[in-house]
Amino acid sequence: MNPRIVVALGGNAILRSKELSSYEEQFENVRRTCRQIVRLIAEGFQPIFTHGNGPQVGNLLIQNEAAAHLVPPVPLDVCGAETQGQIGYMIQQALRNELGALGLSRPVTSLVTQVLVDADDPAFELPTKPVGPFLSRDVAERRMREKGEAWAEIDARGWRRLVPSPQPIGIVEIDVIRALLDAGAVVVAGGGGGVPVLRRPDGRLQGVDAVVDKDLAAARLALEVGAPILLILTDVPGVALDFGKPTQRFLGAVTLAELEHHLVHEPFPVGSIGPKVRAAYRFVRDGGQQATVCALEDALAGLRGEAGTVVVRGDAVQLPLY
Q1: Integer Cα distance of 233 and 106 in angstroms
Q2: Separation of first and last alpha carbons in the chain
Q3: ∠ CA(9), CA(15), CA(18), 5° rounding?
Q4: What is the 8-class DSSP label of residue 308?
Q5: How far apart are CA 14 and CA 125, in angstroms?
Q6: Per the CB 3.0–4.6 Å rule, which of 10, 157, 182, 242 could disulfide with 234?
Q7: Which residues are catalytic?
């Protein structure tokens, strides 16, 4: 059976810096990405892809503000579901085309995925994730007063709404994902961290205005599908210590214990590499075999332990032979 791996695509796979985020630019970036990652399938792996959706959700929220006088605004959880469909469509089409160019035939599908969160998660008491456009103090104060929303002044550009970022505790559609994988499909799931939902006392699901970190959700997905490897692809060569300082250095192969030491002593940026480091740590800690953080173009080398930061269990680094 082909080894399953969960591949978490960073934002640069869809939208590169200084671009206007037009549909055409996003689709071309997805095509470039798929030309890289199709090699994983050609090498015999069965990938499950996840992806970011921050800029796409941000655009929808801006559209909400601009058209509020014409149509009712779309809730944040629905924005997440919409962008899963948008990006999933682009990935599955581009992957099919790239597979065809290599003479390979695989079923490819994307799945709108709900991710279960806990209503008692402390994140709901302290929203910290900025979403949507920058607005004025007057608008922010009115929203806080009339809607009970949390807002904060981010910088000179103005105020942004803050929403909770709870921990993912389960993948609602996991049985469907497993069935698709058993049928040999390449699956795109859990995009943007999934649509966060609560389970009510009567067992019914309910969407919630929150954002689940996409890398932590990817780790949860990898554990639930039994994938031994989590591959986090980004726009840097790996995890750096002393980032931006003259003493900056990238981590290569590290054990779980070594990474735990770095997590305690290194202030990894929350808005960039930090969540990726924590996702890699949690995946291996909770039963995964290997987590790799590397650049998109180093995907295969990262799997082999020849590039990026590779996290494994044990007292000594002994990389799996793939």
Answers
A1: 22
A2: 13
A3: 140
A4: S
A5: 32
A6: 10
A7: 11-12, 129, 214, 276
Task: Please give the chain's pLDDT, 322 residues, in tens.
Answer: 468 999 999 876 787 655 556 888 888 889 988 998 899 999 999 999 999 998 889 989 999 999 989 999 999 999 999 999 999 999 999 999 999 999 999 999 999 999 999 999 999 999 999 999 999 999 999 999 999 999 999 999 999 999 999 999 999 999 999 999 999 999 999 999 999 999 999 999 999 999 999 999 999 999 999 999 999 998 889 998 888 788 888 999 999 999 988 888 777 877 678 899 999 999 999 999 999 999 988 999 998 889 999 999 875 455 443 4
* Cβ neighbourhood burial of 172 (10 Å; 0-12, 13-18, 19+): middle
**Cβ(175)–Cβ(197) below 8 Å:** no
Say what the pTM is. 0.92
The residue type of 44 is G
Nearest to 309 by CA among 286, 187, 266, 15: 266
Strand order in the sheet with 108-111: 108-111, 186-189, 46-51, 4-9, 229-234, 290-295, 309-312, 253-255
The sign of the CA dihedral 277, 282, 285, 288 is: negative
Which tokens belong to 68? 């509020």
Q: In CATH, what class is 4-112+172-312? A: alpha beta
Eight-state DSSP code of residue 11: G
Instruction: In the chain, count H helices and then E strands.
Output: 9, 17
Is beta strand 150-155 parallel, antiparallel or unpaired with respect to 309-312? Answer: unpaired
CA distance 314 to 149: 45
Domain ranges of the chain: 4-112+172-312
